[in-house]
Amino acid sequence: MSAVSAVLDVGVAGIGLLGPGLVDWASALPLLRDPALWQRVPTVVPAPALLPATERRRAGIVVKASVVVADAACAAAGVAPASLATVFTSSTGDPANCHALCEALASAGRLVSPTRFTNSVHNVAAGYWHIATQSMQTSTSLAAFDASLAAGLLEAAAQCAYTLAPVLLVACDVPYLEPLHGVRPLADSFALAMVLLPQGGRRLHLALAGDAIATRCAHPGLETLRGQIPAARGLPLLQALAGPAAAALVLEGLPGMALAVQVDAA
After folding, report:
1. Is residue 73 within 8 Å of residue 194, measured between CB atoms?
2. Is 231 or 109 the better-scoring residue by pLDDT?
3. Cα-Cα end-to-end distance for the chain
4. Which of 26, 31, 107, 174 lies in disulfide reach of 189, CB 3.0 to 4.6 Å?
């Protein structure tokens, strides 16, 4: 494994999690430590308390899931959401809204709802979050296909290390409807969030690792989930953070840009 000499050092102070059989970070901890206890059931996205009822009705699943895990991560870290710069990463964006827009454009009237158009941008989840928290901090939204989680973590860590200020990372992917699902199948919704700190917290050391092979989950069920949803590529890191021991792993990146992560002991 080849890695660049430069290493980013950041800490993790709070985590939010939502996925198949993973209701939240607190209840997921024993399941990630002992995956034999984990049972895969469809993800249920709760109504995000931060969004008013009107906004909850307008928002898609990717917005709701992102806000839920972001809120949980901030609460666990004990930080004010409005104080954090953010990095939102997603391979899919809002597939349901994309599907509805395509249907509208394929119809005879070709009429697009203003709400659909507003929610069509890739930074829609970040927009809802910053409006709900009244945050004026900087925000980045990105996508890198199956490497979106690693790209988001690298971006958030770089910002945290450069600005010496906490950064909120949010990664979320939800399934497409047919016919897009047939060419880009995602099995379920998965979202995670982390508050990264320049000092303190559980320390992570990140470096580019060339074409290194991504770390697999030892449990076959979690490994299947990891491969089915881009945001779930973070499962090996979540498992490392769930345990007390130091760990070394590789997250799937773009070609030639795998991300090596060393996790310090708790």
Report:
1. yes
2. 231
3. 26
4. 174
Is 220 domain-assigned?
Answer: no
In a domain? residue 206: no
Q: Tell me which of 106 and 163 has the higher pLDDT.
A: 163
CA distance 264 to 213: 21
Task: Please answer whether residues 261 and 209 qualify as being in contact, where contact means their C-beta atoms are separated by less than 8 angstroms.
Answer: no
In a domain, 152, yes or no: yes
pLDDT digits (tens, 9 = 90+) for 144-178: 999 999 999 999 999 999 999 999 999 999 999 99
For residues 91 and 143, is the Cβ–Cβ distance under 8 A? yes
Query: Which carries the bigger pLDDT value, residue 101 or residue 247?
Result: 247
pTM of the model: 0.94
Q: State the total domains in the chain.
A: 1
Show the domain range for 173. Answer: 11-201
Is the residue at 42 inside a domain? Answer: yes
Residue 94 has pLDDT above 80, yes or no: yes
Rounded Cα gap, residues 158 and 208, in angstroms: 12
Which CATH number fits the domain that encloses residue 110? 3.40.47.10
